[in-house]
């Protein structure tokens, strides 16, 4: 028998051993799959979580969600590289997720999940389970994810395969800035990052408290990899990475507009790539979402990210948005005929 429950108090996780273990540091291989990430969202971004749990014996399926008016969305913000359901080892994933999808019909008439990966069939599974549970499901690509499979290379071997212009820039300008690397949280380095970001081309930071707390927690856990570049003593570039489960995640990077001729970001990226490849021995570097041109200089593989928009077809208020999506798809298909 599968039982579905919903929780807005994340402290309740501690009372359920399989659930607590699933969302703990030992089981997670990415920050977005940890309870600490959800707690940070709830406490610094003013998000009320809706954690959906399907359980059968010791088996668990967990889906981090939140409400927005009459809709339900993935429990995520702009800092998340991806979202996905989580399962205890050996769980009957399809059965648990189908039961969860069926029960969610009583919670909201519309659900949207994004950005979803599909490297291990995650999007396929969610789509199939929600369809089986009676939802009308619309799937579309919402973004891309640039990654670098290291494939056993040293940093020197990897760098030799980079575009000639990138390697030339490193040779010509690498000595124009000094680089500091940190594997723990340093308040002065973080202040430098904030100074750089404020003078960069980037938009206003989405949630500085969220990001700082995340950096502090990752520093305490030994997963933080941070770097600051200085020119004539002043910070001109900063980057914030984390490392775990054999993957290096590139979370934030910025350089000041005035320092652009120095290419400090290129020098800083090279220093961090060398650190995670040669010292941390990662097997993958993940540059997150977004199709920025500079990512292609460093990365070698582009993976799609998906959005699933799901409606209860018997709900009259859903008919118009469903029709709009269907018409948009027909129009897009006609362009390719």
Automatic annotation (TrEMBL):
What EC number(s) has UniProt assigned to this enzyme?
Answer: 2.3.1.-
Any idea where the BioF2-like acetyltransferase domain is? 177-296
Q: What is this protein called?
A: GNAT family N-acetyltransferase
Name of the top EC class for this enzyme = transferase
What taxonomic ancestry is recorded?
Bacteria, Pseudomonadati, Pseudomonadota, Alphaproteobacteria, Sphingomonadales
Sorted alphabetically, which keywords does the UniProt record give? Acyltransferase, Transferase
Q: Which InterPro entries match?
A: Acyl_CoA_acyltransferase, BioF2-like_GNAT_dom
The molecular function GO annotations come to: acyltransferase activity
């Amino acid at each position: 028998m599968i039982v579905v429950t919903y929780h807005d108090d994340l402290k309740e996780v501690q009372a359920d051993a399989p659930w607590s273990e699933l969302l703990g540091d030992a089981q997670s291989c990415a920050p977005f799959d940890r309870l600490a990430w959800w707690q940070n969202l709830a406490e610094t971004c003013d998000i009320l979580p809706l954690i959906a749990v399907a359980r059968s014996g010791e088996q668990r399926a967990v889906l981090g969600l939140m409400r927005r008016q009459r809709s339900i969305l993935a429990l995520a913000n702009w800092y998340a590289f991806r979202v996905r359901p989580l399962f205890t080892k050996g769980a009957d994933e399809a059965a648990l997720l189908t039961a969860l999808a069926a029960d969610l019909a009583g919670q909201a008439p519309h659900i949207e999940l994004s950005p979803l990966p599909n490297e291990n069939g995650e999007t396929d599974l969610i789509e199939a389970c929600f369809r089986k549970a009676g939802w009308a499901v619309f799937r579309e690509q919402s973004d891309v994810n640039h990654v670098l499979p290291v494939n056993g290379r040293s940093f020197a071997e990897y760098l030799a395969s980079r575009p000639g212009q990138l390697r030339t820039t490193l040779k010509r300008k690498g000595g124009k800035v000094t680089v500091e690397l940190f594997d723990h949280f340093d308040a002065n380095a973080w202040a430098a990052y904030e100074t750089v970001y404020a003078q960069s081309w980037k938009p206003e930071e989405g949630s500085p408290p969220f990001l700082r707390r995340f950096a502090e927690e990752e520093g305490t856990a030994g997963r933080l990899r941070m770097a600051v570049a200085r020119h004539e003593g002043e910070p001109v570039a900063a980057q914030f990475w984390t490392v775990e489960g054999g993957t290096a995640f590139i979370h934030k990077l910025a350089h000041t507009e005035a320092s652009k001729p120095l290419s400090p970001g290129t020098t800083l990226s090279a220093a961090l790539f060398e650190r995670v490849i040669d010292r941390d021995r990662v097997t993958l570097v993940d540059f997150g979402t977004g199709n920025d041109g500079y990512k292609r200089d460093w990365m070698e593989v582009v993976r799609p990210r998906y959005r699933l928009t799901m409606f209860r077809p018997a709900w009259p208020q859903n008919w118009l948005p469903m029709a709009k999506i269907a018409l948009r798809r027909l129009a897009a298909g006609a362009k390719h005929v």
